[in-house]
Amino acid sequence: EIRRVEDVNQNLSSEEKSRLDLKQELLKQVHETELFKHVDKFLSSVGYEDNLPYVAAKDFSQGAQILSGTELDELCCPETCVKCIK
Fold this sequence. Notes:
Layout: H1 14-31, H2 34-45, H3 52-68, E1 76-77, E2 82-83
């Protein structure tokens, strides 16, 4: 989720603020995992460091869709070759 810095504290309900805080904490925890560090190191070594935020966001979104049981927008994420099994 992308927001301008000046918009973060304006016009947000307490529910939205809580949701953003939770997302920030989850992202922090993901960045601290060994898997993330390994993927980051690998992508940097092959010149894809600028794509890491995109790949992470895409996979996080796919994972959320899979866990919630909703239909996926795509069946494959070519950046990571993650395929859904239906």
